[in-house]
Fold:
Amino acid sequence: MRKKQETRCESCAFRAVAEKSPKSLRGRLWIWHTSFCPGWKKHLQNLREQNQAAPRIGHLRGIWEK
Structure:
């Protein structure tokens, strides 16, 4: 099992705001951003490899079954 790699997405202030209020403008921008962000995709892949749960919000297509 690989050691968990820390990503900036885990402590992102923008993500924290989006999780508190996903329907706000900033929340919707963050969700849109996750559809193409390579850092977020790497973060999701790391979570998947560690058998952790999917994030509450964010782009999950191709990573977790819905």
